[in-house]
Amino acid sequence: MKTRRSDRLQEALDNAPEAGEPSVVIRSAIVESVSHQPRVQRVAPDWLRLISSEPELAATAPLAYRPWIDTLSPYIAHRLPDAPAAICRALATAYQAAAFAALIEWADAGACGDCADAVDEMLRWMDIHAPVTIPNDRLVPRTSPPTPGVSR
Question: How far is CA 63 from CA 68, 70, 99, 139, in A?
């Protein structure tokens, strides 16, 4: 089930440049997808406070944000073709959580300025990069057979 949020995100991702650091491109697309309608900006603070303060509503968040995560995850996979699908989904989930945290913080601070600016500021803390290979890391498979008598 698509939502307006996920449709706006999909449109922003479709218009995102192919070149550039994935974190920057993804952050820019997410910020672009935040609603800039004055009506939404007016009611958003009260709605965000309600969602975050009511346990029954907060419990529905994973289902409510699934279309958004389902939209972002394949895009991350496209930008990071060697990344496992599970990490792409985890990264999309982290982006959703960080964006939502930024919106809650914006609302709790009095909703001054554009909420998209708060999302932009929060997402600047996130940086996607390929894993670092550590010498003698046991989790990295060897390319040559082990030497007899030497344990890994």
Answer: 10, 11, 16, 33
Distance CA 122, CA 99 (A): 7
CA 86, CA 72: separation in Å to the nearest integer? 13
Handedness of CA 98, 68, 60, 34 (dihedral sign): positive
Q: What is the pLDDT along the chain (152 residues), one digit of tens a residue?
A: 566 778 889 999 999 998 889 999 999 999 998 877 666 666 777 777 777 777 787 777 777 789 999 999 999 999 999 899 999 999 999 999 999 889 889 888 888 888 899 999 999 999 988 777 666 666 654 444 555 554 44
> Phi-psi category of 8—alpha, beta or left, where left has phi over 0 and alpha has psi -120 to 50?
alpha
Alpha-helix residue ranges (DSSP H) falling in the chain: 4-14, 22-33, 38-53, 55-58, 61-64, 66-79, 85-108, 115-123
* Residue 55 to residue 65: CA distance in whole angstroms: 16
| Angle at which helices 66-79 and 4-14 cross, to 10° | 20
Alpha-carbon span 16 to 108, nearest angstrom: 31
